[in-house]
Amino acid sequence: MFVNSWFSFFASQAPEPLPLEEILEPFPPARTISFTIRTAQGYDLLNLAEILADSFHDRAGFTGLIFPLLRLGIYEDLRNRLRSSPPHYACLVAVAEQPVEQEELIGTIELALKLPPPWQFRPPHYPYISNLAVKKIYRRQGAAMQLLAACERLVMVWGFEDLYLHVLENNYEARRLYLKAGYQLQGVEHSWWSWLLGQPKRLFLHKHLQPSG
After folding, report:
1. In this structure, are residues 147 and 130 in contact, taking their beta carbons and an 8 Å threshold?
2. CA-CA-CA-CA torsion sign (78, 82, 84, 89)
3. Helices (H), the chain
4. Residues 48, 208: Cα–Cα separation, whole Å
5. Residue 4 has pLDDT above 90, yes or no
6. What is the mean pLDDT of residues 199-207?
7. Burial environment of residue 144 by CB neighbours within 10 A (0 to 12, 13 to 18, 19 or more)
8. Model-level pTM?
9. What is the pLDDT of residue 11?
10. What are the backbone dihedrals phi and psi of residue 82, each rounded to the nearest 5 degrees, phi first?
């Protein structure tokens, strides 16, 4: 079994690949909907918490009973991140330009410099994407790809040429999205939960950015 030394000693053999506001200028329309990417504002928090909670938590069963608490926790965490506003942090949102000229928030993504654990051989700080989420009715219409592209441009403005993220191995829709966007598998990270309870492993993905021009 090949173990990539770039990652922790928990890394294992990679799974089979799947088949196949100056920086953030507006993007061309996707299908019949025109999207614009901008930075998140305080007044977006309620909508962002709803989108994130709905994307990452199931409303059925016990999780459905505590869904309001999960959404509140997401709201508070995001509010604290927006308030602290570190120098290399961005929360971006995708908004749909409606015919009545009233924007609708439909997706979000976060970008920050991450400090790796001491046992992992990675750069001391590296740009890391998290919390990519799009409203269900707007998925497969280009919003997620546009949010990723906005992060890539922002990372290059910060002076970096590499971008990283995690995805669960059983999240096939997200894996196809990242593959299409040019992200490549760097390692597979196990945890005690994945070994003992059969939970999905986390895949660590990387993309090297090519400066335009």
Report:
1. no
2. positive
3. 45-56, 61-65, 67-84, 143-158, 172-180, 192-197
4. 29
5. no
6. 91
7. buried
8. 0.79
9. 37
10. -65, -35
- Asked if residue 91 lies in contact with residue 154, where contact means CB atoms within 8 angstroms, the answer is no
- Angstrom distance (rounded) from CA 105 to CA 54: 14
- pLDDT by residue (tens digit) across 129-158? 999 999 999 999 999 999 999 999 999 999
Provide the residue count of the chain. 213
The residue whose two tokens read 């929360």 is 91
Dist. CA 34–CA 141, nearest whole Å: 10
Query: DSSP states of 25-53 as a string?
Result: PPPPPBTTB-EEEEE--GGGHHHHHHHHH
Q: Scan for tokens 């005690």, then name that residue.
A: 192
Query: In this structure, are residues 52 and 74 in contact, taking their beta carbons and an 8 Å threshold?
Result: yes
Strand partners, 159: none
Identify the residue whose tokens are 């989420």.
133
Pairing of strands 126-134, 162-168: parallel
Residue pair 80/110 in contact by the 8 Å Cβ criterion: no
Do the strands 89-96 and 184-189 form a parallel or antiparallel pair, or are they unpaired? Answer: unpaired
